[in-house]
Amino acid sequence: MEKKQEGFSLIELIVVLLILMILGGVSIFYLSAHQKLYKPDDQSLIIIDFLQEARQRSLTQRETMRVEIDITDNVIRLIDENTVNIETDDNVLKENFLYFPNDVRMDRRPLEIADNPPESLPVSTAVFSPSVYPPSGTNTVCTFRFQSNGTVADAGNNATGNNASVAGATLHIWQPDKTETNQSTIARAITVIGSTGSIRLWEYDRASTQTNKWRDSRRIGGYGGQVGGSTGSQSQ
Predict the structure, then answer these.
(1) How many folded domains does the chain comprise?
(2) Residue % of the chain over a pLDDT of 90
């Protein structure tokens, strides 16, 4: 007597395939949304890495290290200025691509945020302006020049950094709202203190009842999500 062989029917196979397709679609949707939440944090950490390396190199190699955040080409560069007063020996040590401004903006502070992070030595919002240095041509950049004495200077007014002054800045890094692109859904900030070269990352906590809602990221650790819940539509 022959044994009866059993297996999956065509209908059962189709049902299994449909379930796998649905689960795959849902996973892709949530992973894409979650990845978008991480973009301001990813960009912040890349920039922090460049700034910290520039500071360390300037102190150990006793040379000025320049960080250029270029929003024309969407790149960040670490540059060794080498010999003082000679522009032709600037050496790009490394560079990294950044997110496009429809995903992450840095050119200004979001409109709904009235304050910069509460540093003990307050620093103004970073300024992006046409570069005076050859590697970036006339692109729009924000420049930090880490000096061998531990201070941070601005770009100065020519390719050798003449008339530069010790100056830090607050760099705002934020995800623009889809309908109000000058306001943010997620906001981070990096402060660089000119007189000391210290660097700190901050997160904006919309749920805070304090007047200044910036929080030191080392204490609240809200990476990958919006701290506090609401979008950037709150009033100024």
Answers:
(1) 1
(2) 69
